[in-house]
Every structure is written in structure tokens, then in C-alpha cells.
Amino acid sequence: MRRLAAAAVALALTAVAAPDPATAFLVEVTTSVSIENVHDEAALKDALQKTVDSVLSDAIAFRPTVVVVRQAVLIRGRLYLRLLVADQDGERTFQDLDRDGERESEPTEVKL
């Protein structure tokens, strides 16, 4: 009985003393927007800003510290965007992944 009580106390202390797991948000979002005049640079910039704002307000549930346009393609009057959005911890994760990518010269295949 004493061992059981000691184990219960040890488990309770471990649960209380254990730090919360770190959470990092790092999300890639693909979206698109229609562009009426593809030759109007101001309209393109405005559409890009409105689209990013829309993603941040409608699709992301955390406060980002970085937004990166990873790819932008204009096809038949439609602007397709790939955005990388991260919070502060996610930004550090992205930097760590980027550094690790510099060290590996060949991709590694992973089967799920």
C-alpha cells in the first residue's frame, strides 16, 4: 500500500512539475484571387495585400509573426499564391528546418 501511495505522489508531482509541450504554428496556405487587369501593378499589389489579409483573418487562428509569399503565379487572370505563415515558435522551427536543409544535399524519401 505504501508503494502505491508513493507511486501516486510521484506521478502527481511529475504531472505538476512537467513543462507544457511547446507549440509552434507553421502553415502553408494556397489561395487564389481573380485579377481584372494583369498589367496594372498597383491592382496586383492591392489584390495580393487583400488576399493575404483575408487568409490571416479567415483561415489562420493564431497571431503570425511572419508571412512569406513562397510562390505567386498569374494564370489567365487569376493570381495563385502559396503563403508560409508562422508564429514566433514556428518561425524558429522554419529557420531550423532551413538550416537542416542546407546540410542535406539529397532529399530523403519517407514512406507512410
Question: What are the main properties of this structure?
Answer:
alpha+beta; three-stranded antiparallel beta sheet; 112 residues; single chain; globular
Task: Describe the model.
- By secondary structure, the chain is an alpha+beta fold.
- The chain has a domain at 34-104.
- The chain contains three helices and three strands.
- The chain has a three-stranded antiparallel beta sheet.
- A hairpin with a 2-residue loop joins strand 2 and strand 3.
- The chain is globular.
In short:
The chain has 112 residues and is of the alpha+beta class.
Which value, in Å, is the CA radius of gyration? 22 Å
The structure class reads alpha+beta
Q: Give the beta-strand count.
A: 3
What is the N-to-C succession of helices and strands? HEHEEH
Detail the poorly predicted runs: none
What composes the largest sheet? 3 strands, antiparallel
- Principal-axis shape equals globular
What percent of the residues sit in helical stretches (DSSP H or I)?
40-55%
Oligomer: single chain
Average pLDDT number: 78
The termini sit apart by: 46 Å
Helix segment tally = 3
How would you write the strand order of the largest sheet?
Answer: 1-3-2
Q: What is the beta-strand fraction? A: 25-35%
